[in-house]
């Protein structure tokens, strides 16, 4: 399927043929949900920790007589019911990562690209290069394309473009190898350069043919 290509100035620059097996699928929410859950779980540090009963300082001596006190028969000040005692069933250091087959991850990326194309939220530009790293100039350029919340993907990130775009709120810039489902879906627009389209198709075509 053919899609128009524009320049950063929003002028026509020809067209590009998109692979139906990558950009023309019917998006499946279950696959996208599985991949986003996998990504967010993997990025959790899991370093939250509290001291449990065996880790706090406190006497283990029986501090109250067995009978006649009118209270419970405690034998340890480190019990969770006391101030300064250990925490019961608190968080421990652990990994939150879950498994997701590589084939499913690639399938989810194809469905994310298809979802953007199907929702008319995909823009193809000829290249993403700037002569100077000027944020103000880039913001006016984005205004011509109607971009306020976008992910821009290129095969090789131009250094001037990267420096100018990093100060623009709501805009992310990633190389083809870093394109992922979560970042694609969290932005309202997906902007791909022609070389990025070729790179993504080369990255995903092998799996699409299986």
Give the tags.
rRNA-binding; Ribosomal Protein L4, Chain: A; six-stranded mixed beta sheet; 210 residues; alpha/beta; 2 domains
The main sheet comes to: 6 strands, mixed
**Per CATH, which architecture of the largest domain?**
3-Layer(aba) Sandwich
The total domain count is: 2
Q: Trace the largest sheet across and list its strands.
A: 2-1-3-6-4-5
How much strand content do the residues show? Answer: 5-15%
Assign the structural class, choosing from mainly alpha, mainly beta, alpha/beta, alpha+beta, or little secondary structure. Answer: alpha/beta
Shape: elongated
Please identify the top-level CATH class of the largest domain.
Alpha Beta
* CATH fold topology of the largest domain: Ribosomal Protein L4, Chain: A
Please work out how many helical segments DSSP would assign: 7
Query: How confident overall, as mean pLDDT?
Result: 92
**Terminal CA distance:** 21 Å
Tell how many strands the DSSP assignment holds: 6
Low-confidence runs:
none
Q: What value does the Rg take, in angstroms?
A: 27 Å
Please provide the ordered H/E string of secondary-structure elements: EEHHHEHEHEHEH
Which range best describes the helical content: under 10%, 10-25%, 25-40%, 40-55%, 55-70% or over 70%? 25-40%
CATH homologous superfamily annotation of the largest domain: Ribosomal protein L4/L1
Describe this structure in words.
- There is one protein chain.
- By secondary structure, the protein is of the alpha/beta class.
- It folds into two domains: 2-45 and 97-208, Ribosomal protein L4/L1 (Ribosomal Protein L4, Chain: A, 3-Layer(aba) Sandwich); 50-90, no CATH class.
- Helices cover 36% and strands 14% of the residues.
- The protein is built from seven helices and six strands; from the N terminus they run E-E-H-H-H-E-H-E-H-E-H-E-H.
- It has a six-stranded mixed beta sheet.
- Strand 1 and strand 2 form a beta hairpin.
- The chain is elongated.
